[in-house]
C-alpha cells in the first residue's frame, strides 16, 4: 500500500487575509442613532473577488529575519454621517532586514469614491500627494521623466473596486506609514446602503482593526454584514420618514425616499441583441434573465420584445398587457431566441421609439404610466448606421424627452462610453454586465432597480433667495428602493422659514409633501471631537456637485459641456478630489541611485476599463511620455495577499445626547459567524474531509488528493471562541461554521491548544438548522425544535432530512438533494491527561450537490481549483 504524504504548512493566524466587508444600512427612523461597527477577522469572496484571483501558489514562508518586512499595524476608520462616508486606511510596516526593501502599498477602494489624500511617512519624513489638474500633473511628470511608460497608481479591481498601489524603497531597519483617505456618498439601492471595504494584509498583524462609525439622524433600521450567522438587526421603531432635510454649518442636504406609495405602471420595450457575438453562454444567460424578468412583470404593465441582428424582428407589433397568458406566450418565444447576423443598434432602438409613440397616440397605454426602453447589446454597431455620434443623435432626437432609455453593455467588447452617453441623453443610465456565471443574476438585479416606478417628474423646491449652488433638484422618475439627494449652500440664516416642498405625479393622483429642515449641531453629538472629519457637509455638497457635473459633461450644448467641465475641475482641485479631471502626484523619496520619479494617481471611469482583465484600457497620457513602475525584484515586499475573505463582526449602537432611544443589537443564540479562508487551493473530488491527526489537539484540516498519493493539511491558529466558516454555499443557503475551544492547561511557551467545540449548520432552502456542541445537539426544522444528548442513540426522519445519532460517538445527517456529513465526538483520548476537553470533528461525506459558488475553509476544495507547490524540502523521516 503506498505511503500517503502530508503537505503541511505553518500555522496561519486568522487576522491576516483579505478583509472584505459589506455593510448594508437601511435608514428610515425619525431619531438619532450612532453606531460603531468593529471588524477583526475575514470571509469568503464574492463572485467579483473570485474573478480577480489568479492561480494560487502554496509556498513555504521564509523564516530568515533578514528577508522580512513586518506589517505591524493595519487600521481602517470609516465614519458615515448623513450617508457621506469618509474612510482612512492606515498601514505601518518596519523593514527588519539588513538591506533595503522595495515595499508596495496596495489597497482597494470603491469605484464610486474619490481619493481625497495620500501620504507616506518614512523615518519621520512626510511625503504627501498633491491633487492637480490632469494636464498640469502630466507636465510635472514629463519634466521629471523623459521616457518610459507608467501603468498608473490606480487600476480596476473587480466590479465594484479600484486598486491603488504605490511602491517605495525602504532602508534597512526603517519604518514607513501609508495613509490613504477617500470619500463617497452612499447610494441607496433596493432600500439599502452598502459600505464596501477591502483590506489585504499579507501576514499576521499585531494591531489590526476595522471600525465603522455610523451617525444617522433618521435612525438605523438594521446593520448587517454579508458573512454572519448573527442577527444584527435593530428593532423597528416609531414610523418611517418621507422626507428629511438637515442643515450643518451653512449647507443643507435633503434626502427624499417616500415609503408605501403605489407603483406607477410601466411600458417597457426590451431591445435584445441576438447577433453572432451573443452566441453561447451570453445568449443562454440572456434568455434565462428575460424569462425571470417577464415573470416579474405586474399585470398593469405593458411590454414588447424587439430582437435585432442585421435584421429587426418584433414579437408583436404593439405593446402587450402583462397578463399571465401573454407572459407565458412571451416566455415560450424568448426560449427560442437564437443568435445570428451582425448588429444594427440604430434601427432597433428607433423601432422601439416608434412603437411606444404609436401606442401613446392610439391611447392604448395608461395615462399615468412611464415609458422606457431597455437595450442589451455586447458589441459595436456594424450594420445599418454604424457611426456612434450619429446613432446618439438619431436616438436623442427621436425620443425627445418623452421616454427613458437604459443601456446594458454585456462583456468586454462593448463600447461602454457610447451606451453611457446615449443613456444620459435620454433620462436613463447605463450598466456594464460582466461576463461570468452570474451574468443572468446581474441582468435581473438591474431590472429590479427600475422595475417599480413610484413617482414621475419629481420637483424639489426650496425657499427663494435662501439657497444657492443647488445640485440637481428635478428628476424624471423615482424608483422603489432608491433615493433622491439634493444639497445646497444657504444664503439666509433664518432657519425658521426654511420649508421644503416636493411635487410629483403619482399613479393615481399628484403627490405633494412639505417638510421643515432641522439643524444639526455635531459639537453636541461628538463633544470629544472637533467634529467628525471637518467640514463634511460642504464636502458632501462638493462631492455631489462634481458627480453631477461630470455626469452632465457628455450632454447639452458645447458651451454647457465646457462650463460644466471647467466648474467640476475647479471644485476637484479646491476640495482635493481625484476625479477624471484631476490627478494626484505622489513624489517618492530619493534612492541610492538618485532622485526617484513621481507617480500619478488618476480616477478611472467605466468607459476606460476593460472588465475582462481588470486593467486600464485607455489613458489620457501618451505612452511615449510615461514611465512604468519598476518590476518587483527579489527584495520586494507586497503588502497584500490573495483576494479572499471576512470574519467576526461586533456591532454596537449607542444613543447620542437628547436622542430617542434606539433598540440595541440582539446577540442571537445562533452559533457562529464567518471566518477566513486559507490561501491554498487544491483540486479534489467531491469527498473532502478534515480530521485531527496531530496529538496537540489543534484543528488540523486534511484534504485528500484522489489523483496522487498525497494529502494536503494545514492548521489555523486563533484564540478560543473564534468562529471559522467551514462551508458556505449561497445558492441553497448552506452554511457550516465551527467555534474553537481551548485546553485548560497552557504549555510553558504560552501556546493554547485548541479544538472544535461547537458547530452551527444551516440549510435555508430546506429550513434546517443544527447546533452541535460537545454536550448536546439542537435540531430546528419546520418550526419544531428537538434537543438530543450525546448519550442517546436515536434517529429522526423527515421529508428533507435524515438524522442518525450513535451514542457518544457520531451524528450522521443527510439533507435531501444536498449534502451528507458526519460530526464525531472525541472524548477521553488520553486517559491520564486531566486537562483535556471533549471536542468535535466534522467530516463531509457527499458534497457533489453543492454549487460552484461554494466556499469556506473546506468548501473551497469541493470543486476544481488549480494549485502549484513551491519551496518543498525533504523531511528527516523519508515517509513524510
From TrEMBL:
Chain ranges of the VWFA domain: 267-450
Protein name: Inter-alpha-trypsin inhibitor heavy chain H3
Annotated signal peptide: 1-35
The entry's keywords: Glycoprotein, Protease inhibitor, Proteoglycan, Secreted, Serine protease inhibitor, Signal
Domain of life per record: Eukaryota
Function summary: May act as a carrier of hyaluronan in serum or as a binding protein between hyaluronan and other matrix protein, including those on cell surfaces in tissues to regulate the localization, synthesis and degradation of hyaluronan which are essential to cells undergoing biological processes.
Comp. bias (Polar residues): 607-617
Entries under Gene3D superfamilies matching the protein: von Willebrand factor, type A domain
A Gene Ontology cellular-component term: extracellular region
MF annotations from Gene Ontology: serine-type endopeptidase inhibitor activity
Subcellular location: Secreted
SMART domains recorded: VIT, VWA
Family to which the UniProt record says this protein belongs: Belongs to the ITIH family.
GO BP annotations, alphabetical order: hyaluronan metabolic process
Keyword Glycoprotein: yes
Pfam families membership: ITI_HC_C, VIT, VWA
Basic and acidic residues biased stretches: 41-53
Amino acid at each position: 500500500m503506498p505511503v500517503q504524504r502530508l503537505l503541511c504548512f505553518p500555522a496561519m493566524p486568522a487576522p491576516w487575509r483579505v478583509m472584505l466587508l459589506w455593510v448594508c444600512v437601511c435608514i428610515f427612523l425619525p431619531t438619532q442613532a450612532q453606531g460603531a461597527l468593529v471588524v477583526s477577522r475575514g470571509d469568503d469572496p464574492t463572485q467579483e473577488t473570485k474573478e480577480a484571483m489568479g492561480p494560487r501558489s502554496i509556498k513555504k514562508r521564509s523564516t530568515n529575519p533578514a528577508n522580512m518586512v513586518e506589517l505591524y499595524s493595519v487600521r481602517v476608520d470609516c465614519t458615515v454621517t448623513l450617508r457621506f462616508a469618509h474612510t482612512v486606511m492606515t498601514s505601518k510596516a518596519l523593514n527588519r532586514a539588513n538591506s533595503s526593501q522595495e515595499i508596495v502599498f496596495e489597497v482597494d477602494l470603491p469605484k464610486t469614491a474619490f481619493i481625497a489624500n495620500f501620504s507616506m511617512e518614512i523615518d519621520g519624513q512626510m511625503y504627501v500627494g498633491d491633487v492637480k489638474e490632469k494636464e498640469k500633473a502630466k507636465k510635472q511628470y514629463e519634466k521629471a521623466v523623459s521616457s518610459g511608460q507608467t501603468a498608473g497608481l490606480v487600476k480596476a479591481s473587480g466590479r465594484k473596486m479600484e486598486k491603488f498601489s504605490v511602491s517605495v524603497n525602504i532602508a534597512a531597519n526603517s519604518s514607513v506609514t501609508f495613509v490613504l483617505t477617500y470619500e463617497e456618498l452612499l447610494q441607496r439601492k433596493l432600500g439599502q446602503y452598502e459600505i464596501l471595504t477591502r483590506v489585504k494584509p499579507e501576514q499576521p498583524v499585531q494591531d489590526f482593526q476595522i471600525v465603522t462609525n455610523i451617525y444617522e439622524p433618521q435612525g438605523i433600521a438594521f446593520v448587517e454584514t454579508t458573512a454572519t450567522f448573527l442577527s444584527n438587526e435593530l428593532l423597528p421603531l416609531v414610523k418611517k420618514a418621507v422626507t428629511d432635510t438637515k442643515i450643518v454649518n451653512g449647507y443643507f442636504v435633503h434626502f427624499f425616499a417616500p415609503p408605501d406609495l403605489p407603483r406607477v405602471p410601466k411600458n417597457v420595450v426590451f431591445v435584445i441583441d441576438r447577433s453572432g457575438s451573443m452566441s453561447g453562454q451570453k445568449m443562454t444567460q440572456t434568455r434565462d434573465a428575460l424569462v425571470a424578468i417577464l415573470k416579474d412583470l405586474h399585470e398593469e404593465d405593458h411590454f414588447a420584445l424587439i430582437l435585432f441582428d442585421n435584421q429587426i424582428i418584433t414579437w408583436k407589433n404593439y405593446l402587450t398587457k402583462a397578463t399571465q397568458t401573454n407572459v407565458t406566450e412571451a416566455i415560450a418565444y424568448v426560449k427560442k431566441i437564437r443568435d445570428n447576423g451582425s448588429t444594427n443598434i440604430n434601427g432597433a432602438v428607433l423601432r422601439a421609439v416608434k412603437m411606444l409613440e404609436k401606442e401613446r397616440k392610439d391611447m392604448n397605454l395608461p395615462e399615468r404610466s412611464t415609458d422606457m426602453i431597455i437595450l442589451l447589446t455586447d458589441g459595436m454597431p456594424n450594420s445599418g448606421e454604424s457611426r456612434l455620434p450619429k446613432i446618439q443623435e438619431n436616438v436623442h432626437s427621436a425620443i425627445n424627452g418623452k421616454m427613458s432609455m437604459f443601456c446594458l453593455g454585456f462583456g468586454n467588447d462593448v463600447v461602454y462610453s457610447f451606451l453611457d452617453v446615449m443613456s444620459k441623453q435620454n433620462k436613463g443610465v447605463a450598466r456594464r454586465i460582466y461576463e461570468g456565471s452570474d451574468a443572468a443574476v446581474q441582468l435581473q438585479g438591474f431590472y429590479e432597480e427600475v422595475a417599480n416606478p413610484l413617482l414621475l417628474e419629481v420637483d424639489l423646491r426650496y425657499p427663494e433667495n435662501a439657497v444657492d449652488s443647488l445640485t440637481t433638484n428635478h428628476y424624471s422618475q423615482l424608483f422603489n428602493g432608491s433615493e433622491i439627494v439634493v444639497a445646497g449652500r444657504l444664503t439666509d440664516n433664518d432657519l425658521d422659514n426654511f420649508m421644503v416642498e416636493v411635487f410629483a405625479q403619482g399613479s393615481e393622483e399628484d403627490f405633494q409633501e412639505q417638510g421643515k429642515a432641522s439643524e444639526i449641531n455635531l459639537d453636541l453629538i461628538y463633544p470629544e471631537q472637533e467634529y467628525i472629519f471637518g467640514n463634511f457637509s460642504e464636502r458632501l455638497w462638493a462631492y455631489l456637485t462634481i458627480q453631477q457635473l461630470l455626469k452632465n459633461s457628455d450632454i447639452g450644448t458645447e458651451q454647457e459641456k465646457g462650463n460644466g467641465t471647467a466648474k467640476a475641475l475647479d471644485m476637484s482641485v479646491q476640495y482635493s478630489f481625484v476625479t477624471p479631471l484631476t490627478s494626484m502626484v505622489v513624489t517618492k523619496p530619493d534612492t541610492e541611485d538618485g532622485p526617484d520619479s513621481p507617480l500619478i494617481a488618476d480616477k478611472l471611469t467605466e468607459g476606460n476599463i476593460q472588465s475582462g482583465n481588470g486593467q486600464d484600457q485607455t489613458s489620457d497620457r501618451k505612452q511615449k511620455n510615461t514611465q512604468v513602475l519598476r518590476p518587483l525584484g527579489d527584495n520586494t515586499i507586497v503588502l497584500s495577499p490573495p483576494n479572499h475573505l471576512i470574519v467576526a463582526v461586533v456591532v454596537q449602537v449607542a444613543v447620542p445626547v437628547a436622542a430617542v432611544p434606539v433598540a440595541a443589537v440582539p446577540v442571537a443564540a445562533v452559533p457562529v459567524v464567518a471566518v477566513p479562508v486559507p490561501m491554498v487551493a487544491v483540486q479534489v473530488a467531491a469527498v473532502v474531509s478534515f480530521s485531527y491527526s496531530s496529538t496537540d489537539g489543534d484543528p488540523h484540516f486534511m484534504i485528500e488528493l484522489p489523483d496522487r498519493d498525497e494529502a494536503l493539511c494545514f492548521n489555523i491558529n486563533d484564540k478560543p471562541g473564534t468562529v471559522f466558516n467551514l462551508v458556505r454555499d449561497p445558492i441553497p443557503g448552506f452554511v457550516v461554521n465551527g467555534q474553537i475551544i481551548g485546553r485548560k492547561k497552557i504549555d510553558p511557551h504560552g501556546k493554547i491548544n485548541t479544538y472544535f467545540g461547537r458547530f452551527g449548520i444551516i440549510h435555508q432552502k430546506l429550513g434546517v438548522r443544527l447546533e452541535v456542541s460537545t454536550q448536546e445537539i439542537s435540531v430546528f426544522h419546520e418550526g419544531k425544535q428537538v434537543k438530543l444528548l450525546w448519550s442517546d442513540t436515536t434517529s429522526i426522519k423527515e421529508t428533507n432530512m435524515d438524522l442518525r445519532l450513535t451514542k457518544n460517538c457520531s451524528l450522521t445527517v443527510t439533507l435531501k438533494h444536498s449534502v451528507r456529513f458526519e460530526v464525531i465526538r472525541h472524548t477521553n483520548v488520553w486517559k491520564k491527561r486531566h486537562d483535556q476537553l471533549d471536542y468535535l470533528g466534522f467530516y463531509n461525506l457527499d458534497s457533489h450537490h453543492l454549487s460552484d459558488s461554494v466556499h469556506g475553509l473546506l468548501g473551497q476544495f469541493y470543486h476544481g481549483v488549480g494549485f502549484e507547490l513551491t519551496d518543498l524540502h525533504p523531511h528527516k523521516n523519508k515517509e513524510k
